[in-house]
Amino acid sequence: MKLTFLGTGTSCGVPTIGCQCHTCTSPDSHDKRLRCSALVETEQTRLLIDCGPDFREQIMPHPFRRIDGILITHAHYDHMGGLDDVRPYCQFGEINVYADPIARKGMLEMLPYCFAEHRYPGVPAIQLHEILPHEPFQIGDFRITPFQVMHHDLPILGYRIEAGQSTLVYITDMKTIAEDEVPYAEHCDVLVVNALRPLPHHSHQTLDEAVCFAQHIGAPHTWLIHSSHDMPRHDDVNKLLPSNIQMAFDGQIVEI
């Protein structure tokens, strides 16, 4: 299983428009963070996790091949605002998109022309699948189990993704998780989880909260994502973290 981080930033991206802070002015490419998204692949199957407004820019450097499924974590624009840009991939067939009922409703409202009874030519052909926490499903080589975390008071989805003997757990935008959901994140090879900034936030984990969660899960390797410009520079943060918990960066490839 191969994981590629297409974007590791929060809703405004980094650098943030008009900002001259220490992170936004960094010359280091590791501090350029597009909106959060990831590719998860085997030789036969390719998944996209979230499809934000930077999707076109993110996917251009990668081989043009079928996307077998798009997993949506929640109905915020920075996680599904790029769905119209999947239209070139429709030459391989319909695009299968998986979302919970809340995200499904948001998608229908955001892209009504994609789901109209009489669609005009050229719109992306999206097949929308409604999924629920704890109900596993299969896409090609991948067995996927959604589970629920809380983005402040909005329930959203994390994903446990298994292929062969490898297990990835992907969580973004989490603030809290119920104790009975934690087992779905345990016993994985790689954990991906959000860490917005050092200071508290009402709907996202801080850096310390993300580290505590990762240590509680006990994954051999944890990568931190969904970081804002309020997070110090990539290399400075990583020097302070345990070696098995590090900030991810855009374009990074992890073999699982």
Describe this protein with a few key phrases:
about 260 residues; alpha/beta; 5 helices; 14 strands
Would you mind describing this structure in some detail?
The chain has five helices and 14 strands. It has 256 residues and is an alpha/beta fold. The protein has a seven-stranded mixed beta sheet with strand order 6-5-4-3-2-1-14. Strands 7-8-9-10-11-12-13 form a seven-stranded mixed beta sheet. The mean pLDDT is 97.
Name the helicity range.
Answer: 10-25%
Mean of residue pLDDT? 97
Rg from alpha-carbon coordinates: 17 Å
Order of strands across the main sheet = 6-5-4-3-2-1-14
Which term fits the overall shape? globular
Class from secondary-structure proportions: alpha/beta
What order do the helices and strands follow? EEEHEHEHEEEEEEHEHEE
Q: Would you report the number of β strands? A: 14
